[in-house]
Specification:
There is one protein chain. The protein is α+β, with helices and mostly antiparallel strands. The protein has a single domain, classed as Ubiquitin-like (UB roll) (Roll). The chain contains one helix and four strands; from the N terminus they run E-E-E-E-H. The protein is elongated, with a radius of gyration of 15 Å.
Length: 76
């Protein structure tokens, strides 16, 4: 994957961060989901900035996951 240099990381300031896709695990009501999340990620500290277009790529997957968890909770 081609890395595009940008400004220094806004979290650690140590080096430029790059647009990459990383596996990211989130939790909703104690239920984990791991997905590929594009964004600008820092190799030094691991923090990322996820903007509008990058957020849109995972938004539907997250909404579906949350709906499944909420629906499962209503069945009991």
């Amino acid at each position: 994957m081609k890395k595009i240099k940008t400004q220094d990381c806004p979290f650690c300031g140590k080096e430029p961060y790059h647009h990459q896709t990383k596996l990211m695990t989130l939790r909703y009501k104690s239920n984990p989901i791991t997905m590929k999340q594009p964004g600008y990620w820092c190799d030094a500290c691991g923090e990322g900035v996820i903007g509008g277009e990058d957020r849109k790529t995972t938004q539907k997957e997250l909404q579906t996951f949350r709906a499944e968890i909420d629906t499962a909770g209503q069945l009991f």
